[in-house]
Amino acid sequence: MPRRSVTLDGESLTLEQLEQIADGAPCKLSAAALKRGDRSRAVVDRAAAGDDQVYGVNTGFGRLSRIRIDARSLDDLQLNLIRSHAAGVGNPLPERVVRAILALRANCLCRGHSGIRRGVLGRMIELLNAGIHPVIPEQGSVGASGDLAPLAHIALCVIGEGEVHYQGRRMKAATALKRAGLAPIRLEAKEGLALINGTQVMSAIGSLALLRAERLAVSADITGAMSLEAMLGSARAFDSRIHDARPHPGQLASASNLRRLLDESKIAESHADCDRVQDAYSLRCMPQVHGAARDTLAHVRRVLETEINSSTDNPMVFIDEDELMSGGNFHGQPVSVALDLMGIAVCSLGTISERRIDRMLNPDLSRELPAFLTREPGLNSGFMMAQVTAAALVSENKVLAHPASVDSITTSASQEDHVSMGVHAARKGASIVEHIARVLGIEAMCAAQALDLRRPLTPGRGVAAAHTAVRSRIKELKRDRVLAGDMDRAAELVDDGSLVRAAQKRIGPLA
Description:
By secondary structure, the chain is mostly helical. The protein has two domains: 6-198, Fumarase/aspartase (N-terminal domain) (Fumarase C, Chain B, domain 1, Orthogonal Bundle); 206-302 and 348-507, Fumarase C, Chain A, domain 2.
């Protein structure tokens, strides 16, 4: 079934639409955006034909901005800019991320503050719709004048240089353009600078990671509820009266989810009269910990929703005033700080999950479950190493969570003397989110095993549905086997939304 096209107008792109484009949806530009672009270009053309010195139009760049460029060399100025700035290194960014970057850059350029021609703007859309994905090295941006180096690798493709992925192969951009029936474009005044000044690389990586993190926050409530049932924990700490007394939105949502997931639990009824007064924090404080992550992610969403519909290049064109004005909207600090917060917040979903995993496996803490959740401990090691893997991942996250945005390094002969490190924050944040998916998958796998060991007692309706979803992909562990494949399947179950969908099918939408 063909994917529905997403219209870019520079003002209304949502994170969910961006993900659709990343996953292959085609794009088009709104008529109003094209008209704004034409008017914006006219302002640049007048500036290029005039006698005034205008940064980015008839001057050098960065520290070289005081050097006036002869009118006959303005096109060469843009060409040289792209070639010199395409200085990225490292592994190529995933094609899914590249699609998001192309879409965000086009959405920025069509706002009418960039002054590029309709054909250059349209080329971004043509690349997306043709499936021509520039090879963008993941390292080289400090997030100062935006993501100069990685965006220059996109601009290379526009002019027919550099490399791309096309039809399943890596090839020269010129070859891919020819096969797609597209010709290289010669850039004119300001257009090269417009293509590379912006925060779209950090925003694309961060936006896709955020959407994934938001889904994992719901999965964390489910895996946590599974673990609580497995360890004969109490749902009393999730009573609405407790959380209404401290009404953080994320905490309220998480507590509500837990109550519904645990509803009608026969396991809970079996120990209603036990002498345990309260559970360990990793069980009792799930709403507070999961909720804090949710609230932080909500803040990050607001930042990114603003950023992806903003003008972030320099100089900026103001159509009504017929003026170009230099500023600093390309600076990535708002995004960098937000993505650092995302990584820090999501770390807690992993650290508390790993503690629940350990409690299930530790016979001194698990309330009569066999050591490492195996029926024959000693002969079998059970899930011993699954917990070690989870511990390794959460410990690596503690290193990755050190904020990138507190760092700065001077570049461009001290002209760019404070930088944001936004792509560093985005890449670290995406890695943390990847690790959390795996940790929550391990928790789901261990909790399902523990629930099997509690039979014939049955858990709450939502937890029972999640248990069934795990067992649809991973068999009960009756004797030792290689767990690596099981852990991959468990991570997919958490990450692709299957665990959430299974629970929601039984108990309705979760917050």
